[in-house]
């Protein structure tokens, strides 16, 4: 069995020739900053939830390399279809921190991104984003837009028929779509081993005739490199790719979950050594002169930016009740319009 | 202007939409070279090519979900589910996504897709091929659900569905596909969605129905007329939204309402109409609101199918009861 | 006899069933070592082992379909769908198979399965976690659909569902899981499915509701009593079949019926009740039948969730209108 | 790519050492007779449909080896879950010709088999039988019955999420289940190549960790041998297997279909040389002294039996309307009981 693609190992050592983009210190620092920013957002979101100021929240701690790596390989005209744990990718694409807070705070306006207008909002029904991605890719193919649809889901999502039906049609129609699996080893309390007996989740591509690859999802360089290759293939009209990114869910499933009920701290702790920030920081220090000051400045900047966004979010008044109806249809049918009046007055 | 049956009218509407709007794309099982199992898409792949008229693999979930994805990016997908009995796998995508994408993105993304499906019984099809589960769809906020009753209405309503900026489920009463023909002008004119059609005027009794059951409903109205009872016949046409005003206005005039549908009684769409009248027209009612519907059992295999379908006799018995009510 | 909340009562019923009947098998997502995301199965895997309390992969279609298969071979599967918003993928198996296997094999195979799912809003859950689509299920011939309203009723009705020889969807109003406690005897006694429960007597007005909305319904009844209006409160309990007799009898007495549910109005189950009254109790009605329900829109995210849920105020306004109707 | 398992090639020559059961002339004659009987049933059913005396019917012509081979490997206590084209297997299992005629004639009593009481009736919603098979296998595992659930579906059925979700859980739980694909190259008008880009449909097993095998589905010996092996594995507690049987749909999809709309006669005709009866007959003639008389006697016996069953079916009165309700529930709720009265009187 081929080893998962990796460039930077857990210690931050280069175990393979770096791709071009990863020789550039600026690029790597941007990736690093995006991951740090994501982690800061995560911490703040959890804190807000714990104090009753945010809804149930799914932290991405330890898995930042996946969605940041994926998003960083994408172009603006591509479309991102994330599950609920891919904040890093959304932020990279231009969704604002305020929008993310609004969304997780229970306000639909958080999905009305100023930024990537065609990107999908977070997908909660597991795996249902994959058929959407096939449809987005169909539109791109049909319109010759050169764009690619990029969906991410968890290891658990690969057990749903939706995943499989979508991958299958991407294969048949050679659609420009990339499906990325964030394999964080758990689906709430169900471990990867109970999700499928497949040796690798990327093997699920075989039954659809697509190429599948397993990579180290804690190495943002590997994630970006693999995604870039897949995007190139898609843009060249060669069809879709399945990429399985190996990572680990360091935190609870969501703030509503208590992982200590079903997994031991002993299982978790070794994974802290493999998480994506440590290794990239080590490499930056070694190869690009990243210093303590840089680190502190970055942390400070992220903290300030995230705190400010949280304040803005907290200061945002909820919508009026009538907003429940404003975008239900382009033209609200008359009997429902009457309900909107009732809601306003209730 | 030629006489067309409903399947021809549907095909003409699809062709027109493909012709006029390059963003219209058709997909579904066997809709390509086979032209659809009922021939609704016959000839379209030859005319518009296999990029715009696409055979899918046997995957209803992805048919619905792909329509959602494509619709958000400027295509106008018109997807087909081969029979309504196989539409259940598409409900997740309809309810959880298609119907709420505009709302949950506060208008940023929308989902102008059409999902076509033949529905209803009466043609002696195998099991699972004769379902009428329109009430389940009509309960989903954010959807529109449309049922035509004649070739001309099928043409106009299907064009409307395709032009609609929101998701529409277009249910085709397959018993009517080839039942009758009428002149249909290929003028590209859409009929408004949301309006019921008054097919017959009368002052004694309002009969509300949709799709294929309008056949029995009309027959009953004829028979009643022979007895001097003038029934108003309303074709609901749009099952979501419901044209409550038209029905209320009619019942305020007649004082009696009888709803006819093929789907099972309990929690069928007839209940919504009766409930609306029980709230808004109570004082106009001269008789109980009655429903003549399919029974609350599974559509039987073909040998008993006729015994399941609401008969003219049952409609007449209910109508007579209502006229005699005091 | 201890005071239990609803989740504890459900757990006690599940444990009892596992204890008494070796054919009972539980499966679903996270029901094993995690004990279910609401802890309904907490401790059961430790007690009954991982062969009888099984974590499934994330596959709702197979959860439902596997229950069908297992039920035909003498197991009594009690499967869990984690939230009703993820039950759509199970509808195909429910409607096309579970509900009709006995009928289509003329009794040779049957399907004594239970599908449990938490439903409804009011706990500030993420989107897709607060659905109330019970009317869709209540429309499917061959199913039973049950909703408990108190810990003790949850215990007895769940045991009944498990003992039932036919498929039962057991919907758990999650807002009530920990809302109140009451004494629940672990006596293994099932409550009959199909019977509505009269929770409060009154002669002026009948309030019909189920599940979590009984909370607001009770509060409204209290408030009305303060004004001298005596409301009868009926807990429907079984959404399929509906205990039409109990409702009719009550409305024949009170002359007024107000139905309260959380699901959207249109084609919601309240319509069936109102329609039944419009047919069978017309002459008893002193006022229009009213429904106070969720709006015909998507359940909003948590910031507006409260504005969606039917409020005591809305119930009272409707009740007052009805009392003043003349 | 491994060649599909085959013992008897199209010409009836043995290309490989025969398994034990296939050295026995009686066994092979029984398999042959079962296929001939099935084909005769098919012909009669199509004739009845054409004359308005049967409902829409799916002929299995050319694919008899699959379900006969599969069923012949099964034990009575196993459970068969067929799709709508597996008459041969049903008949082998003990479903009567009358019952099959009744079913396809639109009478539910056709599903009330006197014979294999636990077998499933024909499954019309494509692929929905696979989850049932997983559940049946779960019951067998749980009860230690030693039985195996055997489901058959078409090439088209492998595109449904149901197939994949079920196969996946069979893998995880090591359920005693065998999934057989009757790959007849078409799903109504959609050719196998448009159903999936997988090289082999049996490769779909890889993503679930199960063994998958592609065999020549026109060789009843190969079908039976592969099924026997899979059943042994399942009985030994080693879990499930996916078997893809290559065959060809010589006829229309159903009597409601006209295959000439979408495939050329030139594509079809070569397949007539590969169909399963010719090769087994050739082998019987060569190795087991099968003669013209044997053949004629068999044909005559099948014709008589099938005709008699058809007569019985045609003479069977439809059920009364009330039968729609008799088995809806074990206890019919009172409001529906009232409907049953109405139906009786209508
Ligand atoms: C269809 C569906 N079923 C169940 C759930 C409830 N649920 C939410 S997340 C989750 C586990 C997801 O696991 P995975 O796909 O590995 O993603 P992760 O949470 O690990 O990122 C479940 C069961 C859901 N959201 N959607
Ligand atoms: C879920 C579902 N979708 C669509 C259909 C309509 N339909 C019946 S058979 C069929 C093709 C099946 O092809 P395949 O699985 O290859 O089996 P075959 O008919 O070739 O034996 C289709 C699309 C159905 N029965 N079920
Ligand atoms: Mg995971
Ligand atoms: Mg096939």
Task: Describe the structure in your own words.
The complex is a heterotetramer, with two copies of chain A (346 residues) and two copies of chain B (326 residues). Chain A has 346 residues and is α/β, with parallel strands linked by helices. Chain A is 45% helix and 9% strand. Chain A has one domain (20-315): Thiamin diphosphate (ThDP)-binding fold, Pyr/PP domains (Rossmann fold, 3-Layer(aba) Sandwich). Chain A is built from twelve helices and seven strands. In chain A, the strands form two sheets. In chain A, strands 1-2-3-7-6 form a five-stranded parallel β-sheet, with helices on both faces. In chain A, 59% of the residues are buried. Helix content of chain B is 37%, strand content 20%. Chain B starts with a strand and ends with a helix. In chain B, the strands form three sheets. In chain B, strands 3-2-4-5-7-6-12 form a seven-stranded mixed β-sheet, sandwiched between helices. In chain B, helix 3 (60-72) runs parallel beside helix 4 and helix 9 packs across helix 10 (269-280). Chain B folds into two domains: 2-184, 3-Layer(aba) Sandwich (Rossmann fold); 197-324, Rossmann fold (3-Layer(aba) Sandwich), CATH 3.40.50.920. Chains in contact: A-B, A-C, A-D, B-C, B-D, C-D. At the B-C interface, helix 4, helix 6 and helix 10 of B face helix 4, helix 6 and helix 10 of C. The structure holds thiamine diphosphate (2 copies) and magnesium ion (2 copies). One thiamine diphosphate sits between chains A (85, 124-126, 153-157, 182, 184, 186-188, 249, 253) and C (29, 58, 60, 82, 86). The site of one magnesium ion (MG) has 6 residues of chain A, from strand 4.
């Amino acid at each position: 069995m081929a080893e998962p693609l990796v460039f930077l190992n857990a210690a931050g050592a280069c175990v393979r020739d770096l791709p071009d983009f990863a020789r550039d210190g600026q690029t790597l620092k941007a990736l690093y900053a995006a991951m740090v920013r994501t982690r800061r957002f995560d911490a703040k979101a959890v804190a807000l939830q714990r104090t009753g100021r945010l809804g149930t929240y799914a932290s991405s701690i330890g898995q930042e390399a996946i969605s940041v790596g994926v998003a960083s390989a994408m172009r603006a005209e591509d479309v991102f279809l994330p599950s609920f744990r891919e904040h890093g990718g959304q932020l990279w694409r231009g969704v604002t921190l305020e929008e993310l807070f609004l969304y997780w705070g229970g306000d639909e306006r958080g999905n009305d991104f100023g930024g990537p207008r065609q990107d999908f909002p977070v997908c909660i029904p597991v795996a249902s984003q994959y058929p959407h991605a096939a449809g987005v890719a169909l539109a791109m193919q049909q319109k010759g837009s050169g764009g690619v649809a990029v969906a991410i889901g968890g290891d658990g999502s690969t057990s749903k028929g939706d995943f499989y039906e979508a991958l299958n049609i991407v294969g048949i129609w050679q659609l420009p779509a990339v499906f990325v699996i964030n394999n964080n080893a758990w689906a709430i309390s169900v471990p990867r081993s109970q999700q499928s007996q497949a040796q690798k989740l990327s093997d699920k591509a075989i039954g659809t005739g697509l190429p599948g690859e397993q990579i180290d999802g804690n190495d943002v360089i590997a994630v970006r490199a693999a995604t870039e290759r897949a995007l190139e293939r898609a843009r060249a009209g060669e069809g879709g790719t399945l990429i399985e990114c190996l990572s680990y869910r360091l935190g609870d499933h969501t703030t509503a979950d208590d992982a200590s009920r079903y997994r031991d701290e002993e299982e978790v702790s070794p994974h802290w050594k493999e998480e994506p920030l440590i290794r990239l920081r080590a490499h930056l220090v070694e190869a690009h002169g990243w210093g303590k000051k840089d680190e502190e400045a970055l942390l400070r900047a992220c903290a300030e930016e995230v705190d400010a966004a949280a304040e803005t979010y907290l200061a945002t008044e909820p919508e009026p009740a009538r907003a429940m109806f404003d975008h239900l249809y382009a033209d609200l049918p008359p009997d429902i319009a009457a309900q909107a009046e009732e809601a306003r007055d209730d | 202007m030629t006489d067309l049956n409903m399947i021809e009218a549907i095909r003409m509407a699809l062709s027109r939409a493909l012709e006029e709007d390059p963003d219209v794309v058709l997909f579904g099982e066997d809709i390509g070279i086979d032209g659809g199992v009922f021939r609704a898409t016959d000839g379209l792949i030859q005319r518009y090519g296999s990029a715009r008229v696409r055979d899918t693999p046997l995957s209803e979930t992805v048919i619905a979900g792909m329509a959602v994805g494509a619709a958000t990016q400027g295509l106008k997908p018109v997807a087909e589910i081969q029979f309504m009995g196989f539409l259940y796998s598409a409900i997740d995508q309809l309810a959880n996504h298609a119907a709420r994408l505009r709302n949950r993105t506060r208008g940023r993304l929308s989902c102008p897709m059409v999902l076509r499906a033949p529905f209803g019984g009466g043609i002696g099809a195998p099991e699972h091929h004769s379902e009428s589960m329109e009430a389940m769809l009509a309960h989903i906020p954010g959807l529109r659900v449309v049922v035509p009753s004649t070739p001309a209405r099928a043409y106009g309503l299907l064009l409307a569905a395709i032009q609609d900026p929101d998701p529409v489920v277009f249910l085709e009463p397959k018993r009517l596909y080839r039942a009758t023909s009428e002149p249909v002008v290929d003028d590209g004119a859409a009929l408004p969605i949301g309006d019921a059609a008054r097919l017959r005027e009368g002052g004694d009794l309002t009969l509300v129905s949709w799709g294929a059951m309008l056949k029995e409903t009309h027959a009953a109205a004829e028979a009643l007329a022979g007895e001097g009872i003038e029934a108003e016949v309303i074709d609901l046409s749009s099952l979501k939204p419901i044209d409550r005003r038209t029905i209320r206005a009619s019942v305020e005039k007649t004082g009696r309402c009888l709803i006819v549908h093929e789907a099972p009684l309990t929690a069928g769409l007839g209940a919504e109409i009766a409930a609306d009248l029980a709230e808004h027209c109570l004082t106009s009612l001269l008789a109980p609101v009655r429903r003549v519907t399919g029974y609350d059992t599974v559509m039987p295999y073909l040998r008993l199918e006729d015994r399941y379908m609401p008969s003219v006799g049952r409609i007449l018995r209910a109508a007579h009861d209502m006229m005699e009510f005091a």
